[in-house]
Amino acid sequence: MFSDKTLHNVKMSKVFTYYLRFIDELYHMIEQCFDFEKEKKEDQEKFEEIRTKYKKIVENHGAEIKNVYYISRDEPFPDLYENADFSMDTIKTSIKEGELKAKQALKEL
C-alpha cells in the first residue's frame, strides 16, 4: 500500500512558518515597547521569561521548508507480488539508492 503524506506535511509546514513569523512579529513589537530602565523588576523578569521562550521556539522549531523534492524508487517490476524480496541485502541496497538520489537532488539545487 502506498501512502504519500507529503502534501499534508507541506501544508502543515506552511502553517508552522506562518505561526513562527507571527510570534517573531509579536516579540519584536513587545521588545520595542519595553523600556528596560523604567520598568519594574517584576516586568523585567516577565520579559526575560518571554525572551527565553521566544529564543527556544526560534532556535528549536524555527525551520522553514522552502521546497519539496520527490525521490521515488525505480523498480524494474513494480508489481509487489513479483518483486517481494525483503532480504537485508535488498533493503540495504534500496536505502543506498535512495541516499544517492537524495544527494543528487541536493547537488542540483
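(ticket continues) Second input and output from the same batch:
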Amino acid sequence: MKRDWCVQTLTLRRLSTFFLVAVFFSAPSLFAGTATGADFLKIPIGAEPAGLGEAYTALAHGINALNWNPAGILQTPSMMSRPSMGLSVSHQDQLEENNLDHLGLIVPNQSGKNSVGFDLIRLSYADQVARTADREAVGQVSAYDMAFGAAMAHNFGRYQVGTQLKVIRQELAGKQADGFAVDMGLLSATPSPRLVMGLAVRNLGPQMRFVSQSSYALPLTFSLGSAYRVTRPLTLAVDVHYLPQQRQTVLSIGSQFSAGSNFTLRAGYLSKLAQAVTNSQTSETNRGNIADVSGLAGGMGFQFRQFNLDYSLTPFGELGNTQMLTLSTWFGETLEEKNNFGSPDAAPESLPVNRVILILPVSNETWWGSLRP
C-alpha cells in the first residue's frame, strides 16, 4: 500500500512538472496583449456544462469532457457494463443568427485504462453584406470558425490524465487563418469519496495571423475545479477560470439535482471577479439576467435507456437567449443485458443454453464400421 502511494505521488509530481513546463513555454504569449482571437473556443460546448454555469472541470465526463477536461473521457455512464463507443451531437443557437454545431466521439478501452476521442466544432456566422470603399453593396460575405480535435486519456489509479490536440481554422470571405492548440486535463480522487478535484489548461498554442493583420493570441484558459456530492441526488461544483490574455478571473458555481432516475435539473452562476481596464473585448460573462440576477444559467436532462437529451438556456439581456440542445448515446453492453444474459467472459456452462440430447442404442463400439463402403 505504501509503495502504491509513493508511485502515485511521484506520478502526480511528474504531471505537475509537465503542466508547469507547458505554461513556461507559453509565457511569451501570455502578456503580448489583452485582445485574443479564435474566441469561438470560449463558447461552452455541451448543454450539460452550459446549464451548470461552466462549473465543469471536476465534473467532466464522457463526450462533454473533450472540450472541458480531456481526462474525463475515461468516465463512462454507470449504466454501461462494456461501453464500446459514445456519440454526441450538439446544436446551439447563438446571438445574431449565428449557429454552433458540435460532433463528438469517444472509444474507450475495455480495460478502462485508456480512452481516445475525436470532436469537430463549427461556428457558422450569418452572411454579411460586402461593400466597397465607397460603401456600395457588392454581394454577401460568408464566414465560419472550425476546430478539429483528437484526444487521449489514461488512468493512473487515483489520477486520470488526458490531452487533446486541436487544429483550428477561421475563414472570412475566402481568406483563412490556421493554427493549433493543446488542451490538458487532470482529475484526482481525494480522501473523501464525495469530493473530486480537477485541473485543466485549454487553448495552449502559438499565435495566429489573418492575412496581413497583426498576430493574435488564442484564448488561453486555466481552470481549477471541485465537485462535491452532498447527497445521492444533489451535487455541487465550483470552478475558477483564469484568462491571462484578458487578465480576467471568473468564478463558476453549478448545482445538479437528479429528480428521478431519468430526469436531472441544473442551475449555474458565473461571477466576474476581475478584469483589466485595458481589455476592450466584451466578456462572455456580461450576460443578461433571470429574476434580476445576472450571470444565471439553467438546464435539464432526460435519459432513456442509452440515450441522453440535454437542454440549456443562457440569457444575454436585450440581445436574446442562447439555447443549446445535446443528444448523446452509448453503444455496448449495458448492466441490464449483463444481468439478464451473463457476462460474455463467463464459462459456457453458466450461460442459459437450450440443449437437445440424442441417445442412439449401439450394440458394439465399432458400429460405425458397417457404414463404410
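Agent notes: The chain has three helices and 18 strands. The helical segments are 2-30, 47-51, 335-341. Closing as not reproducible unless the customer responds.
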